[in-house]
């Protein structure tokens, strides 16, 4: 019995089992087994076959992966937003490899990857799905392209495929402390009341992974699935933006309904509708900020800003300018929204905000 058969057998067993108090331990065990087999499936085989490479070198300030079913307009969006031409046609699987493009927005270079369409069963390797999903794991943001005429069927299927390979969309990492020890059995603690899991279930799940000595501390009310994610330690938590294309083919009421759902943007690539709003939301989701530098006695250089992540300190800015600057740093003068008055004299731990101007004074 291969891994795929074992996985489908466990999935059938989970769907057959009723969810109640009596079966929660059984279901927890099945979920742990399922996660174990899925991670085995994702591990590359021992004998590596030579094949065409698929990943693209990471470049620019951020990386966005364009994921969706075949023929939803991924290549059209790439060609519209970037200067790269990706072949677009009315038949499925026009794009067969990963095509990179660069969006130039607010002075930042955002790498946009047009990936081949995902089909159902991609997590098991159907239609180059394994490679597509592997590239998506390296991105900073997933842009999920959906067909507005097809309701939410595509969205649910894609989320399920990405979920099964350890990509968690728009979720926070579970606040669980987990550490394997040499001996001493299982030490189980929680700082809040647990309603969805108990010590016995934790023990069963850990035994499934052949872990008998460990320290587990729950800092929030988590489920068995979230505990399994922490044990596996190979999950990636990515922000995801759902982009509904082809809105010119549906009613205005339907467009209004879709636009109001969280993390969603409605566009039409063919008629170039709402693409500027998509770019501004993309910038927001990537948490990028611009910081401008200033030389003493001269006006700030607004033509060439530093593109950094939200929450960066003055020390990070120094490293971005030059790696030796942080060692010689004395203080900085900052103009902008992060200060109480302009200019403010700040230390290395001051947090910068978008469009701040900085002048660094060396020792």
TrEMBL record:
Coiled coil: none annotated. InterPro entries: Beta-grasp_dom_sf, DRG, G_OBG, GTP-bd, GTP-binding_2, GTP1-OBG_CS, P-loop_NTPase, Small_GTP-bd. The keyword Methyltransferase does not apply. It comes from the Eukaryota. It holds the Pfam family TGS. GO terms for molecular function: GTP binding; GTPase activity. Keywords: GTP-binding, Nucleotide-binding. Residues 62-287 form the OBG-type G domain. Residues 287-362 form the TGS domain. The keyword Glycoprotein does not apply. PANTHER family: DEVELOPMENTALLY-REGULATED GTP-BINDING PROTEIN 2. This is Developmentally-regulated GTP-binding protein 2.
């Amino acid at each position: 019995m291969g891994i795929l058969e074992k996985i489908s057998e466990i999935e059938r067993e989970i769907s057959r089992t009723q969810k109640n108090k009596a079966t929660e331990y059984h279901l927890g065990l099945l979920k742990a087994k399922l996660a174990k087999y899925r991670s085995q499936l994702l591990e590359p085989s021992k004998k590596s076959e030579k094949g065409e490479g698929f990943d693209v070198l990471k470049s620019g300030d951020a990386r966005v992966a364009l994921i969706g079913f075949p023929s939803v307009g991924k290549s059209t969006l790439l060609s519209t937003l970037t200067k790269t031409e990706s072949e677009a046609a009315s038949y499925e699987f026009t794009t067969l490899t990963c095509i990179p493009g660069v969006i130039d927005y607010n002075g930042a270079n955002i790498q946009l990857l047009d990936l081949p369409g995902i089909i159902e069963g991609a997590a098991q390797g159907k239609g180059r799905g394994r490679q597509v999903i592997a590239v998506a794991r390296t991105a900073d943001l997933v842009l999920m392209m959906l067909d507005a005429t097809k309701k939410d069927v595509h969205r649910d299927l894609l989320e399920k495929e990405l979920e099964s390979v350890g990509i968690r969309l728009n979720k926070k990492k579970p606040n669980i402390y987990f550490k394997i020890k040499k001996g001493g059995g299982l030490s189980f603690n929680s700082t809040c009341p647990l309603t969805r899991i108990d010590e016995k279930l934790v023990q069963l799940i850990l035994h499934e992974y052949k872990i008998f000595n460990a320290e587990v501390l729950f800092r929030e009310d988590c489920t068995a699935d979230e505990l399994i994610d922490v044990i596996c330690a190979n999950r990636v938590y990515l922000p995801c933006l759902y982009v509904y294309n082809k809105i010119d083919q549906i009613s205005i009421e339907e467009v209004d309904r879709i636009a109001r759902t969280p993390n969603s943007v409605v566009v039409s690539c063919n008629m170039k509708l709402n693409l500027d709003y998509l770019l501004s939301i993309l910038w927001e989701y990537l948490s990028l900020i611009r910081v401008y530098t200033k030389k003493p006695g001269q006006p700030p250089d607004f033509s060439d800003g530093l593109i950094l992540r939200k929450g960066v300190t003055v020390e990070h800015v120094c490293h971005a300018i030059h790696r030796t600057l942080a060692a010689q740093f004395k203080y900085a003068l900052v103009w902008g929204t992060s200060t109480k008055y302009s200019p403010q004299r700040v230390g290395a731990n001051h947090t910068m905000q978008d469009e701040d101007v900085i002048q660094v004074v060396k020792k």
